[in-house]
Fold this sequence. Notes:
Elements: H1 11-24, H2 37-44, H3 48-60, E1 64-67, E2 71-74, H4 79-82
Antiparallel strand pairs: 1-2
Helix pairs in contact: 1-3, 2-3
Amino acid sequence: MSPELDRTRPVWRQVAAVIADRIADGSYPVGSRVPSVVELSTEFGIAASTAQKALTHLKTEGLVRAEVGLGSFVAERSEESAGEGA
């Protein structure tokens, strides 16, 4: 079940926040694959470009790492960077 999105705020930020929350609560443990652009598009009912923007933001934040041809995975975080987002 996907969360209700507030269409008055940037949707990509909301999707990124949902994925970050899932990483934080252990739904997506370190090293596990996160949903693809197509999977996120389907789950949230959003455009592929919006899903891609959310994943790119998570990569920039150091929460996920991309493996060409394999997908995106939850990145290991150091103690230092793990405390920054809290």
